[in-house]
Structure formats: structure tokens, C-alpha cells
From TrEMBL:
The protein's name: Phosphate transport system permease protein PstA
CDD domains (UniProt xref): TM_PBP2
GO cellular component: plasma membrane
Residue ranges occupied by any ABC transmembrane type-1 domain in the UniProt entry: 140-349
Region called Disordered, residue ranges: 1-22
Species assigned in the record: Streptomyces radicis
Main localization category: membrane
Amino acid sequence: MSTETTLDKTPPPPDVLPPVPLSRGSLPRGAAPGVLLAFVVVAAALWQLADANPAVCGIGAALGYSVVIYAWSRAVEGPRGAFDRLVTAIVSSAFVLALLPLVSVLTTVVDRGLERFDSEFFNNSMLGVVNEGGGASHAVTGTLIITGIAALMSVPIGMMTAIYLIEYGRGRLARYITFFVDVMTGIPSIVAGLFVYALFELFYGPGIRMGFMGSVALSVLMIPVVVRSTEEMLKLVPNELREASYALAVPKWRTILKVVLPTAIAGIATGVTLAIARVIGETAPLLITVGITRGDNFDPFNERMATLSVYSYTQYQNAPGFAREAFVDRAWAAALTLILIVMALNLVARLIARLFAPKTRS
């Protein structure tokens, strides 16, 4: 067969495919924020003018924004771009909806608490006050004393327990400690208060109340949080740092003290702050172990003390009909003071983390 005949039987080339655009249209830069803002304005108008439920308005705005942005994007950007917009809208809406309760609580506490957030509130106690006036100086002092003692007891115990579990713990004892820490993490606060009251009642008799009992009850709740947070931070320290220290013949205890802890101090400080914030607002265990008093008491080992959480609860619970507004205002002011103390603790933790975090080259 000749070469010409072979070439003549070669199949013709396939049809050329139609050109496919390499890019599609896109929504304007401010399309998504504009649509979201429009739905937020509509939801706010319905809430204020039509007296609609704010939660329903928020959920309706999130759903409406997701549907509109998806349909608009599908018409302009195609199915893939529209699906990306939809997922982004769902995640963003879920984040905003999760923030709504927090914003609502903060707004309400600040709005109601500012009614009595004055110098009289912080310079006076409730001794001799039956109506308006008075303050919570004794409760602020009692909160700081009781929580401070609880932190002094809990932080060393929790940190040393975590160091043992991560650096030394092997075998059955470490498993038992881990199990008990897990159990203590889920203990209700009222159980901790009852346990401490029953323990001190064995030595001091029934009816005993004092600030140190509250510190012990808070430490029972605080220790597992410190242990867990410190454990996680120590696990993040690279083993190469430990091995480099051992290679220089540095003892293990000194490696932990000079290498491991300074590397993890930022996370440990944050965990300790979270543990303090976890217990500083507890009411049930302090109501059982510490009680409440109307005057100043700076001795945690003698008689009852006042704390902000119990003070706020009793002011609201025991408000008489003829002066209920004054009692409720003091309760809200105490709640606002607690929130500000927790915020201050977070700022201190960030400062500690920045000062003691290991220095790295930029």
C-alpha cells in the first residue's frame, strides 16, 4: 500500500470546541455588605417600630441575606461562586447570631448597672441602710480576698499536677489523676459548696461560715481548669527544646523551669485567667460557705464575708416592695462590677503573656 493511500485514510480532525470563557462576572465589591446592611436595617426597624421579637428579626435577616446573596451570585457568578457566597453567608450569620446574646447581656448590664455606678456605691457598705443609698465596698473587698486566696491555692497545685502528668507521669497513678481531674471538671458548683461545708462542719460544728471556706470551694472548681489548660500548653512545647537542653547536660527540673515553663507561660497565664473568671462569679457555693454580711469583714478566717455575686443575688431576692427599685439597681451595679473585674483580669493576663513570652527574632 502506498504512502499516499495511507495518508488519504487519516480521519479528519475533530470539530473545534466552542470558546469557553476563562472568567465569569463577579458581584460589585460592596454587594454583600450592602445587602447585609439593608436586612439589618429592616430587622432593626421591625424590632423598634413593629415591636417584633428581636430574635425572630435577627434570624429572619440572616435567612433573607443568605437567600438574596445566593440568588444574585448564581445569576452573575455561576453555581460555584454562588455556593461559596452561601457558605460564607451561613458562617457569618451563625457568628453574628452567636454574638447576639452576649451583646444583649452586656448592653442590659451596662444600661441598668450605670444607675448606681457611682462613688457612693464603691465607698459604702450596706451597714445601717434599709432603703436607698448604701454600696458594695464590702462585697468588692470580699470578692478580691476570697478569689485571691483561691487562686493562691489552686494555681500552684494545678500547675504542678499538669507538670507531673506531662513531664513525669507514667503508669497507673497518672491515669488515676487524669480520671479524677476529668471528674472534677464536671462537678456542679453547688456540690463543691456542700462538700466544703460538710468538711468544715466536722471541725467547727454546724452553722459555720467564713471566707476561707469559700476560697476552698472555689479552688475545688478552679484546680481542674488550671490543670487542663496547663496540660495543653505544655503539650505544645516542642520536644526539640527539651532534647536540646538535655544535650547540654541540664537537669530535667531545670529544663522544665527554664525552658518549658517560659515557653508556655503565655498560654498558662490565659488559662489561669479563665479559671479565675470561671469561679469569681459563682454564687451557690459562696452562698452556702460564706453567706452574706452587711458590713466590712477583712478576715477570711472569722465570720461571714460579702461577695459581689451573693450581694447581687440577695439584693434582688430580698428587695422589699417599698424600695424594690433601689435594691435592684444595686444588684445590677454589682453585676457590672463583676464584669469589669473579669475584663481587667483578661487585660492583666495579656500583659503577662506579652512580658514573659519567649522572645523570637523578627
